[in-house]
Amino acid sequence: MEDLRRCVLLDMVRMLNGSCSIDKLALLMYMVDKLSGYFIFNWSIEDYMPISQDFLDTIENLRRGGYLDVNNGRVTITTLPFDVSTCGNNWLYSRLISYVSEVVSKYRDKDVHELLGEIADTVI
């Protein structure tokens, strides 16, 4: 599951032009999990904000591996190549990436507060 999480998160950040706030990334990933029904991360809601230790651990794993920079709450793709061979062979990855594309294209221009409103209206 960890490889799948890493692949999906890296692809989402790439679709967001290689960088976004960690809060926005979490909200978008929460939307993907809720809309797809696959729940690759375990989420809880704290003060109206989706929280996932799995999500945070995956971000940290990617940071330690050199694939992401995390600075001042912002996540940015590095130039280190990621071995995507573990991604494409997974049927669930193929399903999830279509949800990722849909969510990113629909919500990429929204800020965190707007996304929280969308989640409250449509997903929670």
Task: Looking at this protein, list some descriptive labels.
124 residues; two-stranded antiparallel ribbon; alpha+beta; three-stranded antiparallel β-sheet
Describe this structure in words.
- It is built from 6 helices and 5 strands; from the N terminus they run αβαββαββααα.
- A 3-stranded antiparallel sheet has the order 1-5-4. A two-stranded antiparallel sheet has the order 2-3.
- The chain has one domain (2-114): Arc Repressor Mutant, subunit A (Orthogonal Bundle), CATH 1.10.10.
- The protein has helices at 2-15, 22-36, 53-64, 85-88, 91-107, 112-123; strands at residues 19-21, 44-46, 49-51, 68-71, 74-77.
- It has 124 residues and is α+β, with helices and mostly antiparallel strands.
- Strand 4 (68-71) and strand 5 form a beta hairpin.
- The radius of gyration is 13 Å and the shape is globular.
Structure summarized in a few sentences:
By secondary structure, the protein is an alpha+beta fold. It has helices at residues 2-15, 22-36, 53-64, 85-88, 91-107, 112-123, and strands at 19-21, 44-46, 49-51, 68-71, 74-77. It has a 3-stranded antiparallel β-sheet with strand order 1-5-4. A two-stranded antiparallel ribbon has the order 2-3.
CA gyration radius, whole angstroms = 13 Å
Q: Specify the number of helices.
A: 6
| Side-by-side strand order of the widest sheet | 1-5-4
Into which percent range does the helicity of residues fall? 55-70%
SSE string, helix = H, strand = E?
HEHEEHEEHHH
